[in-house]
Structure formats: structure tokens, C-alpha cells
Amino acid sequence: MQGGYRTQHISSKKTENLPVLSVITIVYNGADLIARTMKSVLSQTYSNIEYIIVDGASTDNTLDLIKKQEAQIALWVSEKDKGIYDAMNKGLELATGDYILYMNAGDQFFANDTVEKIFAKDPKADIYYGDTLIVDDEGNSLGPRRLRPPQQLNWKSFRYGMLVCHQSFVVRRSLAPAYDLHYKIAADIDWCINCLKDAKTIINTEIFIARYLSGGASWQNQKQALKERFDLMQKHYGTVSVITSHVVIAARYIKFRLQRGKTTN
């Protein structure tokens, strides 16, 4: 089952001299979350946005909410999948834009002019990245993400953790590989590293790009997430480097917890 204006052969490109950004939302039974994400994407001041929604055959009224907005949605599909990364691969295959950004159900752009600001400096870079604000179920701010983006990002930066949130990472479509379905929780880290390895121009937008909904698969399955992250880090950086970096990560986390404890006392 599918719909959206692309099924009527209508293009997402409205302004010729600007790139098209394919924003992909993955959702399953997210009726309480999808509306805020759609509103955030569809309210962007940037003209060339191709909005794609991949629904995993929801059994609640998620699809009804999507259909209400389908005149503004480039393409939506609703069918069973093999998990979130399989669904993300489907979205990637459907995307025809120059750039890719994943904004899943519950997540939002930081502001209505965020995409406009992303491409303001240079509309031809390979990757753009920025900061992320963590929010609760009601959309209230919980502060910036603990891991902050570095001033200069490259593929080696992720040795010390995923310094850039997936929702604040825009990559050129031609550089974006399929997600490795071997990983069930941490495939997004592997994906970002692979994108960074092939990128030549990486721009720090120096803005908040996303409002990220607290909680998720990696939060809910910490043990498996840690194992997957160690395995993929070992693949990219080697055993010695990973052990060293994990000592740094552990020390940094302990320092964060101690500082947080002082501010709450």
C-alpha cells in the first residue's frame, strides 16, 4: 500500500538551484508520535524537501494520520518489514533527493527554518552535521545531548562514541550505503562511519538540527547495544584503539555522572 504526490509523477524540486533533501521517517504504531514529526517536516521553510514515510503495517491509526497529509508527502508506503534498519533501507531505496536525513516518529527539526540554515553556507557539501536537543514525550527540553558534536568531524571521531546524533546528520545520497542488517541496534553508527569515510567535504552547521525523543532501541537494550558498538568499533578502528577509546569513554561518563550528581544536590 502506498500514496503521496510522487505516485502522480509530481516532482519534489521546487527551486532549481537548490538541492533536494529526502527526509525519511520510519514508524510503526506511532499514532501518538507521528503527527509532531510530520508537522515539523512539513512546516520547513526550505522548498526542496522530499518527505518519505515508511510504515511497518501499523495496526493503530498511524496510517489514517499519514493519509490526511499525503498531498504534502512525496511518498508513503505501508508494509511489514524485518526491523527498523530494514525499513530504513526501504526509505533509502525510495529516496530520489540529493541528500538524506532520517527523522523518525517522535523526532523533530529544531526550528521551522532548520533545513534552510543547513544549506545556507554551501549547498554542495558531502555531509552536514549539527547539535541535538533531547526532549521528553511532551516535547519538553531535557537539554542538549550529552555527546556534543566536535568542531571538525571525520570518520575517526566516532572512536569516542557517536558524537553526532543520526537525526542531525545529513549525507549526500550518492554516498549513503545500505544499513548492515547484521546489527540490530547500532547499525546507524556503522552507517555514519561508512558515510564519513567516503566524504570529502564535511560541514559543521554550528546549529541545533534535531529535537530527539528520549528513549529508543539502544536505550532499552543497553547490553546488546554495547556489544554491537564494541564489535563495529573493532571492525573500523582495531582492537587496541577500541580498548583505549573505551577507557576514555568510561572516564568521561563517570565524570558526567559525578557532575550531574553535584548539580542535583
UniProtKB/TrEMBL annotation:
Coiled coil: none annotated. Gene3D superfamilies: Spore Coat Polysaccharide Biosynthesis Protein SpsA, Chain A. GO terms for molecular function: hexosyltransferase activity. Keywords: Transferase. Pfam families: Glycos_transf_2 (PF00535). It comes from the Bacteria. Residues 22-173 form the Glycosyltransferase 2-like domain. InterPro entries: Glyco_trans_2-like (IPR001173), Nucleotide-diphossugar_trans (IPR029044). This is Glycosyl transferase family 2.
